[in-house]
Design brief:
The termini are far apart. The chain is mainly alpha-helical.
Amino acid sequence: MTDASNERRIAAIMAVLVQVRSHGEDESNNARQLGAAWSQDHRRMMTGQASLMHARASRSPWR
């Protein structure tokens, strides 16, 4: 690709991001948040991992 084509592509992406952010909170970021402790615990248990309480307690102590 040429430099001019790349510049136009970057400008188009930036224009979309500016429009999304100007309308308030970006809803696509909501799925990236961990959620409540209850939700985290149940997701961990459903995937066969240790409970959230156990995972938090098993961390190394303060030094």
